[in-house]
Design goal:
The complex is a heterodimer.
Chain A lengths: L25 H13 L3 E5 L3 H6 L11 E3 L5 H17 L9 E7 H6 L2 H10 L3 E7 L39 H6 L5 E6 L3 H14 L5 E6 L3 H4 L6 H10 L6 E4 L2 E4 L15 H5 L10 H25 L2
Parallel strand pairs in A: 1-2, 1-3, 3-4, 4-6, 5-6
Antiparallel strand pairs in A: 5-7, 7-8
Helix pairs in contact in A: 1-7, 3-5
Chain B lengths: L29 E5 L9 H5 L5 E4 L3 E2 L5 E2 L2 E4 L9 H5 L5 E5 L3
Antiparallel strand pairs in B: 1-6, 2-5, 3-4
The chains are: A alpha/beta, B mainly beta.
The structure holds thiamine diphosphate, iron/sulfur cluster (SF4) (3 copies) and magnesium ion (MG).
Chain lengths: 315, 102
Amino acid sequence: MTYRTIRDLPREELFAPGHSMCAGCGAAIAMRWLTKVAGRNTIIVNATGCVEVTTTQFPHTAWRVPYLHVAFENAAAAASGVEAALRVLASKGLRAPSGEKVVVVAGDGGTYDIGLQSLSGMLERGHKVLYVLYDNEAYMNTGIQRSGSTPKYAWTTTTPVGPHIKGKVQWKKDIMGIVLAHRVVYAATASIAYVVDLANKARKALDYSEEGPTFLHVLAPCVPGWRYPENKTVEVARLAVETGYFPLYEWERGAFRLNPPSNTHMDKSRRRPLKEFLRLQGRFTHLTDQEIAEIEAELDTYWNHLAKLVQAYGQ
Amino acid sequence: MSGWRSLPAGAAVLRPGSTADNITGTWRVVRPVIDQERCIRCGICWMYCPDSAILELKREYTTRGGKRYEVTYEVDYDHCKGCGICANECPVKAIEVVLEAK
Ligand SMILES: Cc1ncc(C[n+]2csc(CCOP(=O)(O)OP(=O)(O)O)c2C)c(N)n1
Ligand code: SF4
Ligand code: SF4
Ligand code: SF4
Ligand SMILES: [Mg+2]
């Protein structure tokens, strides 16, 4: 099944309002669409972070599906356990198999850094779980600390901007490269600005999770962490794609594919200037033209890498 | 609440979607107002709202110009936090953002 337009998208809301995510939170949009596509027969296993803290303040929950809150280090390990338990109960005849989907939800801190070993273990052991990374490019819930996902030169509270250091010193880690090295059957990047694409990728990832682990990397802008006006969340997310900062692509059974609009962006002149993405965000206002040029050069290197993947694995 | 002994085992929460009890509409500084005459029922505001606060209602509406629609999009002011994403994304500028307090 493919969703072609907004009309095709699922209507039932399984992520309730009244949560305490900031006004304009990008991750909230991601959670709405993940749950809508996954449907009621889903078990969410959530690492700590903004999504967890803001949706499960006792005695309330925003989730309309079964939900398990676990620690930072072990979301993928706990989900592996849930999936294995369902399988064993069914094989011993103690519980009828009912086709539940097991889905991890974790932030970038919980994925790039603290939960990386449990993610790797889950992928390596081949658990039938979808892992959804909502990437807001820092540890937001505890007050905007840098993570392995924070881009170079971004301001955070632990990468301040001063006379000597201009925000984060290192480049953003290539988490998709790490995931793909595990030879997963399906992995994709997605954006909250491209909901139909995101919904189709969530659908595919859930379907493929019947064979083995799958992975979705969703860029989810954060109002206080990226420092932009709260009505601009979707605009910023769209610019991340249109400028080539966050390309949309998928890896499906050994084939690599860039998705619209990123599939036209191999030609750099089809991308919008990176500045349009950067200048909306307070975390980048200190950037000099030289630093912007350096980020652009690094992006070009990344696109060259993607070009090689298209050459080697493109259809 | 009267101490941890009164909590259910595992602090399980047994009412799905119960955050809907929280009236986050009180957070609002600005209020989105949909102009039903102008709205073309594209669903974009509904799609992007982080608080599921744009309701898609099966309610007919006929514009003064005689155009008939099967659905009406309305703001759930109990939960809308006033982020303004809907107004920013509406392709025909049918959503006005007005100050809550004058
Ligand atoms: C081992 C451990 N260290 C630190 C924390 C404190 N902590 C809770 S949430 C959080 C930030 C999470 O960052 P991320 O995974 O990126 O999710 P976000 O809050 O950005 O959505 C931190 C540091 C913790 N819960 N466990
Ligand atoms: S801090 Fe950022 S990620 Fe966390 S709830 Fe607010 S907007 Fe969302
Ligand atoms: S202002 Fe924000 S919260 Fe309110 S309806 Fe529009 S998008 Fe939803
Ligand atoms: S985005 Fe604008 S035109 Fe589209 S449904 Fe919402 S109010 Fe109507
Ligand atoms: Mg984060």
